[in-house]
Amino acid sequence: MKAAQITRYKAPLEVVERPIPEPGPGELRIRVHAAGVNPVDYKTRNGDLKRAIAFALPVVPGNEMAGVVDKLGPGAARFAVGDAVFARLAKQAMGGFAEYAVVAEALLAHQPKGLDHVHSACLPLVGLTAWQALTERMKTQPGHRILIHVGAGGVGTVAIQLAKHLGAWVATTCSPRNTELVKSLGADQVIDYTSQDFTREVADLDGVFDMLGDETRLKSFSVLKSGGVLCSIGGLIDVATAREFGLAWPLRFLIGLANRKHDRAARIRGASWSYLFMRPDGAQLAHLASLVEAGTLRPVLDKTYPLADIEAAYQYVASGRARGKVVVTM
Q1: pLDDT of 199-236, one tens digit each?
Q2: How far are the Cα atoms of 48, 102, 226, 235, 277 from residue 222, in angstroms, in the given order?
Q3: Residue ending a domain, choose from 275, 291, 314
Q4: Helix or strand or coil: residue 6?
């Protein structure tokens, strides 16, 4: 099969021939039709995450995909050969940028009815990230007022829709060229980050969903009310996430030191914050599929690239110019 692989960190991906994988117990082999490209993919290729997840190179990257069940492993019974499925793959395995991938049954869900492979591949990683941030970390409720940074990005476009589904009032930041897009997704207030300071535009919020980290995260505490919650997926991780990844105590200590100003800002506001490294979850993905079928959620696709041009796809996602999702087709 054709597959993209990381041969060495910071080097361009290579598209090569690799053996077709065999599913083990509780696994299924998927004939991949499309796979989403995300910031975590180029960070993995660059070696930015190797302290947290060490892969034996060469390795096939790709964290989400959509395709058709090709073969069942022993004990797999929830899906049948020929089913159209999608998944956020296991963090320790990846493998989405290939013509075939092996996936644990528990991570799979049926694709939304009426949605093609390309648009289905837009949803697993960003959909689960947004859902877990909004429901598990921020505890979003009807009437909550929240700010979603980078509303036109892959996670942001889904988070706006899910936050509105949960009954929240939503403000978001974006550039002027994306104003109409985020309004069409349900944003109640749009902040032009090129000319406006979000800290002067909103206040007393119940939650902030931060995609950028660093100074944006730090400034975001000032718009939270007492008891408000910030969830971050950008910048430096927190100590709890470092512990989850099994990082050594000296490194956890340094991460704690680096985050002191964020911890202090949260304390001053009477707020709390955490970093989210989302987890794959087939049941949650099935729920998101039901929201698509109900017309509540729609994927936002920017560009597609063939597998042979995956390096161009990486570069485009890394540029930060993508509106919604970028997908590689097999």
Answers
A1: 999 999 999 999 999 999 999 999 999 999 999 999 99
A2: 30, 45, 10, 18, 24
A3: 275
A4: strand
Residue burial 194-204, b: 16+ Cβ < 10 Å; e: rest: eeeebeeebee
Asked if residue 243 and residue 153 are part of one domain, the reply reads yes
Provide the pairing of β-strand 64-72 with 84-88: antiparallel
Task: Please check whether residue 287 lies inside any domain of the structure.
Answer: no
Query: pTM for the whole thing?
Result: 0.96
* N-term to C-term CA, the chain: 10
Question: What are the C-alpha distances in Å from 281 to residues 32, 62, 86, 106, 313?
Answer: 19, 16, 11, 7, 26
In whole angstroms, how far apart are CA 204 and each of 18, 148, 207, 228? 54, 14, 9, 8
Angle of helix 282-293 versus helix 124-131 axis, rounded to 10? 100
Model confidence pLDDT, tens digit, residues 36-53:
999 999 999 998 887 778
Say how many CA atoms lie within 13 Å of 131 toward its Cβ.
19
